[in-house]
Specification:
Length: 488
């Protein structure tokens, strides 16, 4: 079935044919956006380049479908989402290969992503039938307070390239469960996954117009056109903090409700009372999932003096033995970065840290060849004011810093404008929780390297975002409470 999305070509073929926009349940032909394979720097496919007129047509389609979709029973919406979960699971391998080709990530990461993405459809199939309401007695006693939750209306969803399936599912799942219709604008680096998912959604029974997908080379113009249309009531964005700020300003013009999942600069704290091997296992997951191209990626490793040298040696050994190669090749553990610009940024951050006194233990130079490869790299003795300590690295570079006291570790960890994920390793749970309570972040992983779970509220504080995705509250991001004052 997915094969159809690329007109019968095998995913391994060097070039796919053009892919149209998906508006109102129909494919609108177009071209203009080349999709690259970051492992080879070759063009994989071309997708359509939407104009502002296409964006308005997709709002028309979402508006036309809205009343009927909102009126479906929660059970019907749940059944459709459940079928979408099943179809993604059934086509997991094809989707993983597609993700690997257009995003570059290693197949085990791509398979993990498909499972994680599909799980949002299953989770929101289960949550659709549990939308909460409230009934209270007014304190004055004269009447009752009844609170209902209504779908917000048309939602614009904007997603990044680093998790092309999961970020789309994490928004579409709750939006549809809530009764909203949506326009998804995936990143133009990785649009093929989004279009393949839209096909599966249609097969699962999503009615025409409920989910629309468009790709564009002019994201600002298209998004601004959509945000000024009064029918759009929700913007759910995942991407960089810089673009998030711009979108918040745009959305303010029409007072559109915003959920923002933005950048991170996660600290990873290892205390002397931690189990070293467990901390190293967790560090590899927290750093190397998606080759470091994750918003939750451990960006700063703070290791207490007693374990510091052993941690540096252990991490260097593990990082140096990872196999780098095209993500779609079996056996690859670290795929290419998304673009050559991403490689240049990492090179610059590492060179600057070394110049300021950081010690390089492994890696450190971009790999030759056409693809965008950067090797697993370990630095220690990194100065706290180096740029790498304050910038999302978004690559396979572990920067390690030494600390002596708990207070120092907490102060260093919180010294950032970001507040998405944090990691704490300690053999004493009450110690770890005490530290976790003082960390300024939306999520704290204790003695583990992975926080993401569709059943948990994902999101950040400070400039890492607004709102939460997943968990029991994720659906409410797409709903407005409506209060009825009732006198019986
Ligand atoms: P990005 O901000 O460059 O782009 C994200 C999306 O926004 C893309 O679809 C892009 O086309 C679109 N976009 C760019 N400029 C726009 C504009 N002016 N108006 C409207 N849309 C615009 O981010 P990226 O490079 O694709 O992704 C990496 C970033 O995303 C990192 O900062 C990472 O931390 C963050 N991220 C956050 C989470 C989270 O859940 N908090 C998850 C994944 C990625």
């Amino acid at each position: 079935m997915i094969r159809d999305t690329i007109h019968g070509e095998d995913y391994a073929a060097p070039a796919f044919h053009a892919q149209g926009l998906y508006i109102g349940g129909a494919w609108v032909p177009g071209s203009g956006i080349p999709v690259m394979n970051p492992a080879t720097a070759e063009v994989l496919a071309e997708v359509a380049d939407a104009t502002a007129a296409d964006a308005l047509r997709s709002i028309d389609a979402a508006a036309e479908a809205a009343a009927e979709w909102r009126a479906t029973s929660a059970r019907q919406r749940a059944e459709i989402l459940r079928r979408w979960f099943q179809l993604m699971t059934q086509h997991a391998e094809e989707l993983a290969r597609l993700i690997s080709l257009e995003n570059g990530k290693a197949l085990p990461d791509a398979r993990g992503e498909v499972a994680y993405a599909a799980e949002f459809f299953r989770w929101y199939a289960e949550e659709a039938v549990r939308i909460p309401g409230e009934f209270r007695h007014a304190p004055a006693g004269a009447y009752n307070i009844l609170v209902d939750h209504e779908p917000m209306g048309i939602a614009v969803l904007i997603t990044p390239w680093n998790f092309p399936a999961a970020m789309a599912a994490r928004k579409i799942g709750p939006a549809l469960a809530a009764g909203c219709t949506v326009i998804l604008k995936p990143a133009s680096e990785t649009p093929l996954t989004a279009y393949a998912m839209a096909r599966l959604g249609a097969e699962a029974g999503v009615p025409p117009g409920v989910v629309n997908v468009l790709t564009t080379t002019q994201p600002a113009a298209i998004t601004n056109a959509m945000l000024t249309d009064p029918r759009v009531r929700k913007l759910s964005f995942t991407g960089s903090t810089g673009v998030g700020r711009t979108l918040l300003a745009e959305a303010s013009k029409s007072v559109v409700s915003c959920s923002m999942e933005l950048g991170g600069n996660a600290p990873f704290l290892v205390f002397d009372d931690a189990d070293l091997e467990a901390a190293l296992d967790g560090a590899m997951v927290a750093k190397m999932r998606n080759a470091g191209e994750a918003c939750t990626a451990a960006n700063r490793f703070y290791v207490q003096t007693g374990l510091h040298d052993a941690f540096v040696a252990g991490l260097t050994k593990r990082m140096a033995t990872l196999r780098v190669g095209p993500g779609s090749e079996e056996g690859t553990q670290v795929g290419p970065m998304i673009t050559s610009a991403a490689v240049s940024k990492i090179e610059r951050l590492v060179a600057d840290a070394v110049k300021q006194g950081a010690r390089l233990h492994t890696g450190g130079n971009a790999l030759p060849g056409n693809g965008y490869f950067y090797p697993p790299t370990v630095l220690d003795n990194v100065p706290h004011d180096a740029e790498i300590a304050h910038t999302e690295i978004f690559g396979p570079v572990a920067a390690i810093y030494r600390f002596d006291t708990e207070a120092e570790a907490i102060r260093l960890a919180n010294n950032t404008e970001y507040g998405l994920a944090a990691y704490v390793y300690s053999g004493n749970l009450s110690h770890a929780l005490r530290v976790g309570k003082r960390l300024e972040s939306g999520m704290v992983a204790i003695n583990r390297g992975l926080v993401s779970d569709p059943a948990a509220p994902f999101g950040g504080v400070k400039q890492s975002g607004l709102g939460r995705e997943g968990g029991v509250t994720g659906i409410l991001e797409f709903m407005e409470p409506k209060y009825f004052a009732v006198d019986f």
